[in-house]
Every structure is written in C-alpha cells, then in structure tokens.
C-alpha cells in the first residue's frame, strides 16, 4: 500500500475567513469526488438565507475551513508536547475527519434533521442523525473512489469515523483526538470555531472572540485538551457569540416559521416523491440537496404536490404576519390560521453554565482544574440564567398570493 500521495502538501485554497489554506493531497482527492461536491449545494444556514440574503455560504467551504483548523490544532498540540503519541498518519486522519464531518447533512442542514425526526417519531421510526449518515456517506465515497480507499487502512477509516462521531467506537486512541473535531464533552472544537467565525462574517454580525488565541493557549493534560486559565473571558465571549447568533439568525422568528412551513411541505411531498427514503440510499442521497425545492415547485401539473407547493409559496410570498409572543399557544380566533414557533436559546449547555465544564490550567502547572460558579462570578459579569424559551405566534394574512403581493408589506419580518 502506497502513501506517497498523502506525504506532501499540494494545493492552496483562498478562504474568506482563514486566508490561504494548504491542505494535504489526499484531502484534495476527497474534495474532488461527487459525494463531497454535493456539499456545494447545501446551505450552511438552511433557511436563514431566506431572511439574511448574504448568508449564502455552503457546507463545502465550512468543511474546508474545519479541515484547515484541525490540521493547525493537532500540530500545535504535538508542538506543545513532543512526547504525545501523534504520528503523521494520525494527523492526516484528523484532517480527513474534519473535512468529511458534514458529508451526511441533508437539504437545509439541521432543519432537515428536525423535519425527518418529527416524521419518524410520528410513524414509529428510528431517530436519524446526520453524523451517522456522514459515516455511511464516507463508506459510499470510498467504495465509489477506490483510488482514495486504497490510501487508507481499515483501522484508519474506523479512527476517522470515531473522530467524526466524537467518541471511541472502533478505535482506541487517546481521548484528546476525539475532542478536536466534535467535542461532545464541553462543546469546544474546530468545527465550532469555524462555523461561528464563518457565520458571523456572512451574516454581518461581528464576533468578539479569537479562536486563534484559544488554540495557542491549549495543551493536552491527562489525556484531554485543556486551556490556559486567562482565556476564560475569551470562552465566555465565544459562548455569548453562539447565543447571539441563535437569537438573531439561527432561531430568528421568521426562520422558525419557514422551518415549520418547509417541514409541512416535505411531509406532504413525501407521499409522492418519497423524500424521506432518500436518506437510506447513499446513491440517492448523493443528489439530495437544497435543489429539492425546485423539484417540488417545477411539477406544476402534479396535483399531489399542490399542498407542498402552497406551503413553499407561503414562504416566498410572506403570507404570515407576526403577532408577538404567546405563552399558551391556543388558537383564540377560529377563523384565522395561526402557527406557533418556539425558540430555545442557551449558551451551549442548556440551563447550565458551559464555562464550568471546561478544563483549564495555570501557567507552569501540569494539572488541570475547572472553575465553579462562584469563582466565575468573581471574574465575569454573568447572566442570571443561561436558558431562555420564546414562543412566537404568526397569523395567515391572505389566501391569495397575488392579492398578498399587492398589499403593503408588513415590517415585522
């Protein structure tokens, strides 16, 4: 088995967030496959794009950025402690995992995951997760591209999948490897750093944290990634940036409405297009992207798709007006169609303070510690609560899209 293609750097990509990114040749080979190129046609922020016109970036460039940061992170950790058991092949596997970590996303990213799981819950099906679909798509990619498959050993493929999942299933490497791309423990990883920086940039919402500084202040202690104590302020800024993005964009009231309408459109169209079955066939899933909207809309003569088309047109023509927040969710006016959407906002750890979960270290010390709430309150201005629920109410404006387009547009969108 030859590894010659993966032993040198061979292509530089210019990125809006990270500048010049130099990626391993095997990663470039993976990028140039049909299975990976599909990510060009999946919006990073789903239907947020229909509210923020500049949020047009895709999963493709996010994966490249995550791969770039993963390479920097693993090399930094090795530099901090040359005795760490990190080989060149380990570094490559981390980069491949970072590059491929979004292969299993469906149309409109996480919106689709919520829609299909609601459908499966109603029909007694098993829960669907994009990270498991990612592993299946990776297998499909390797099967269809033997020139890439022959560059990787079977245990390396298992290692790559476990990094994507964020836990050891079939590989037995030190814990810190599984914290770089998908840190399920305390939600700090290169995936988070890239999407927070990238989304903030394309949404036009500034960020106050510096992931480069956080990376340089990291090292491995007792098998896990820890951070210098003085970066706690930077991490608070990061979690606050996450909360602000959710409130202003990811869970914007109109985005939540559109997500619900899209779900209704998909469930209606599924009876005729078998939309939800596409996730079980990787060949079909390869071409299952945001273009599904055009596939639904272009079949104007298909009576079975009229309801789905009507739901999508309700999005495009903004046929609902905002009625404010509502606690009980009751339809008090029987003659008006109402839709209720709920925003769940937090700092990344539900009702808990995520800063309490991070392992820190002090300068010159080789042991880690965690701040408690009292210590954090002495250092930071913390909110009283880390979790907020908001229930939004929308009401149908008109039934006729043409009539609605002639009326003066409401400003509450």
UniProtKB/TrEMBL annotation:
GO terms for molecular function: dGTPase activity. Pfam families: HD. SUPFAM superfamilies: HD-domain/PDEase-like. Residues 59-158 form the HD domain. CDD domains: HDc. One of its GO terms (cellular component) is nucleus. GO terms for biological process: dGTP catabolic process. InterPro entries: dGTPase-like (IPR050135), HD/PDEase_dom (IPR003607), HD_domain (IPR006674). Belongs to the SAMHD1 family. This is HD domain-containing protein. It comes from Octopus vulgaris.
